[in-house]
Specification:
globular, Rossmann fold, 16% strand, 4-stranded parallel beta sheet
Length: 132
Amino acid sequence: MKDKIGVFICTGYGIAEALDIEAMRKVVASECKVPFCKTIDSCEKPALQAVIEDIAREGLGKVVIAGISPRRYPDVAFPDGVVVEKIALLEHVVWTQPPGDEGVLVGGHPGVADAHAALVALQGRPAMRTRR
């Protein structure tokens, strides 16, 4: 359990309209080889409870939640012993670029790269260099 990684990508708050969520899922599954990846409609109360249930059901020990501000998640909400990386796609990507911007859609924005770097760090392997 402690090494199994899961990724939750929030699609609410205009995130799905600004980013290519399916492309992000493909990168998570193929390039990062993460065994569990799921989209969620919201990152708040009811949906967050479902995330916590998925963590327990799937035996996830390391989790990336890509969505709203990390300040919105109470740390006490997650199960003990689970490492949780929170990536602010909304604030660091969606709000900083025009909707449909090519760099954002293909994951070229540094905020999207942050999510990738968090996954790499959780896997304990060296980070890839991004082209600028």
